[in-house]
Amino acid sequence: MNDLNTHRPDDPDNLPGAAARAVKTRRPLYEWLAWGLWLITLGILLEFALTSFAEHETQAAVLASALMVGLLLAGLIVEAIQRIEHASAYRYRYPVEHVVEPDSPTEDSQS
User: Fold this and answer.
1) CA distance 46 to 35
2) Which of 75, 68, 91, 92 is nearest to 31 (CA)?
3) I need a surface site. Which of 1, 42, 58, 69 has the fewest CB within 10 A?
């Protein structure tokens, strides 16, 4: 059984290159809840901005609009970074004990 977060070079199911990075992972529940809260907050800020503009409260409307745009951009940046991390080849790093440096002597050659 191959754990998705480890890399085993001797595993026959190990796929090279882009095929290894195409593994789909499901989002955990807390992540879905966080995105839901983000969307609800954006909706509340949008509603507050629109009603403030309708009531000619420009200072409150501009403040709510700026908060909404900032929160929207922050969420988009978080999603972009997560997609980049999931597509990264370094996501499948293997533990340090499996790294063999070519110039270092092995245990067999010392005995």
Assistant:
1) 16
2) 75
3) 1
Angle between helices 58-87 and 29-54 (to 10 degrees): 160
The pTM of the whole model exceeds 0.85: no
Amino acid at 87: A
Q: Which helix (H) or strand (E) holds 61?
A: helix 58-87
Model pLDDT for residues 9-43, shown as the tens digit of each residue: 555 555 555 455 555 567 788 889 999 999 999 99
- Do the Cβ atoms of 52 and 60 come closer than 8 Å? yes
Q: Where are the domains of the chain?
A: 23-89
Report the 10 Å Cβ neighbour count for 45: 20
pLDDT band at 63 (very low <50, low <70, confident <90, very high): very high
